Structures are given as structure tokens and as C-alpha cells.
Amino acid sequence: MTRPYAFAAAIFALLAPLLDCGANQAAQKSAIVISEVRLGHGLDIDGKVPPCLGASRFSTGDPIHLSLWQETSEREGATVRVSIRDVLTSRVVWSEEKASHGSGSYLSFGIGRALPSGAYRAELSVGGVVVSRKSVEIRPFGGR
Asked: In whole angstroms, what is the distance from residue 10 CA to residue 17 CA?
């Protein structure tokens, strides 16, 4: 390796851990592992969106729900937030916070029926760090 490349490699090796440390530290601080984030038209008896009701496209007036499975949670009561953001304006048009129920549980959010037609992004955050994003499309009733 030539001297300039060796110097650059050494600098990168020193800085690489710092490049992602903000997200890693926040995720470790939240100490919640979330999986199975699902959008859909309704909830089952367990209070989650089942695969048969899962969707990312809705018509105006359709009920919209989001559920997630908390695999592990060392901080029961930690803040979990779902925000719906308009893709064109980046404005948050709906948001709700709930406290974590702890490990091995579902947490569901009822987004409602009031979103007008358009393209949206559902953002799930824990401790202020976005951990999941899902696309949401609302079409006029009967639209294609």
C-alpha cells in the first residue's frame, strides 16, 4: 500500500465507528428490538394486523392500522411513536405515541380513516430514532 492510501485507511479506521455512532447509541439506549411491523385494514383478536389484512394501498375512508411485535424490551414504558408523513411536503399529518408493553407483545396504532388521497410514509421511532419506514398510498374511493 502506498503512503497516501495507508494514511487514508488509517484515518477511515479511526473515524468509521463514529460515522454511525449516533444511531447505534440511540438504538442501544432504547433497548427495544422491534420486528413484524405491518400496516393493514384491521386487527385480529390479538390486537395485531394479521397477514390476511395487511396492505400498503388504501382507499379514502378505509381504516388504517399499524402493529408491531416487540421481541425484547429492557425498558418497559419506553416511548414508541408512529408518524404519518406526507411524501411531497415531508409534513407530519398524523402522529401518536404509546408506551412499550415489554418483551413479547404487540403494540398497535389506529391511524384512522381521515387521510386524504396521496402518498405517505409511516415512520416508527423508538426513543426518537426512526427504526422502520413503510410506504402508504391512499387513493380516491373507487380509484385505481
From this structure: 12
CA–CA separation, 36 and 143 (whole Å): 29
C-alpha cell at 19: 460515522
Give the count of beta carbons closer than 10 Å to the beta carbon of residue 134: 16
Residue 43 has what DSSP assignment? -
| pTM of the complete model | 0.73
Q: Is 66:88 a contact under the CB 8 Å cutoff? A: no
Q: What is the largest CA-CA distance in the chain?
A: 65
Residue 54 per-residue DSSP state: B
Kindly compute the dihedral angle of the four CA atoms of residues 34, 118, 98, 129, in this order, to the nearest 10 degrees.
50
Buried b (16+ CB within 10 A) or exposed e, 35-73: eebbbbeebeeeebbeeebebeebebebebbbbbebeeb
The answer to whether 124 and 80 are in contact (CB under 8 A) is: yes
Give tens-digit pLDDT for 58-102. Answer: 999 999 999 998 776 566 678 899 999 999 999 999 999 998 877
The grid cell for 110 is 389506529
